[in-house]
Design a protein that fits this description.
The protein is 83% helix and 0% strand. The chain has seven helices and no strands.
């Protein structure tokens, strides 16, 4: 889950330089506005998410968040206007806000003190691995399936691939 969240963050920047800017006629600071809306959703979602986490089992809550996140990422791939993309990015940030603290909570609750450092380190490495895999995966998507697609732009395929990876993680 943490891997795919970091992969998506890398893919947004790649999407911008691979057609998203032209598709939405983005000018000036509109990409930064989109990123800021994601950050705002993430910041606003922290408190309610952590409160909900104490009321719902972490496995159901985190799985539900992942499923919702995957669905929203598919919707993001189909956005036709910049305001739609802004709204989706805000909601994605809001839903993603619960994942990191929820996983840290789960790791801290599940593992013994002797195992905790190892498990937390593996969790952190997942984010770093996403950055490492991001470039080759994006290259494969942009030159492979996206190149032959008539229905979706190349940058939209990056979001579709993110969702495809995320659905099994949710379940």
């Amino acid at each position: 889950g943490y891997f795919i969240k970091n992969l998506n963050q890398s893919n947004v920047s790649t999407a911008y330089v691979n057609g998203m800017r032209e598709y939405y006629n983005m000018e000036n600071n509109q990409f930064q506005t989109m990123q800021s809306l994601w950050n705002a959703g993430y910041a606003i979602g922290q408190i309610p998410s952590n409160l909900i986490l104490h009321r719902i089992s972490a496995r159901y809550y985190l799985g539900g968040l992942e499923l919702l996140w995957a669905l929203l990422t598919i919707v993001q791939a189909t956005a036709t206007t910049l305001p739609q993309m802004y709204a989706i990015r805000f909601i994605l940030g809001f839903t993603e806000a619960g994942f990191f603290p929820g996983m840290e909570y789960l790791i801290g609750s599940w593992y013994s003190p002797a195992e905790l450092n190892k498990r937390a380190s593996l969790f952190a490495c997942a984010g770093i691995a996403a950055s490492m895999v991001s470039g080759p995966l994006q290259q494969a998507v942009l030159t492979g399936v996206a190149k032959n697609s008539k229905r979706y732009e190349a940058f939209q395929w990056l979001f579709i691939v993110d969702s495809i990876i995320s659905f099994p993680v949710a379940f």
